[in-house]
Amino acid sequence: MPKTLADIKKSLECHLGKRLQLRANGGRKKTVECEGVLSETYRAVFVVELDQEDNACKRVSYSYTDILTEAVEITFLDDTVAVAK
């Protein structure tokens, strides 16, 4: 992943509308894993629309700092991988 906040934002802007797998620190040794679509990027945060059948909430937002500090890990899913599932 890029090493500055500006690089992280540019990298995410290139993937708008693409499916991703998100792994985030949920606190107290819990890890949250979910899939969704990167829907929007703002100056300080990005928004992910989550799959409804798996999650209670519709969307989540994280800051670019969360990626920099590795509190959030994002893996973009390839179209060929999504079809094979």
From TrEMBL:
Task: State the organism named in the record.
Answer: Lysinibacillus odysseyi 34hs-1 = NBRC 100172
Spell out the protein name for this chain: ABC transporter permease
Coiled-coil positions are: none
Task: Write down the InterPro entries for this protein, in alphabetical order.
Answer: Protein_Veg
Biological-process GO terms, alphabetical: regulation of DNA-templated transcription
NCBIfam families referenced in this protein's UniProt entry, alphabetically: BflmStimVeg (NF046033)
Q: Which Pfam families match?
A: VEG
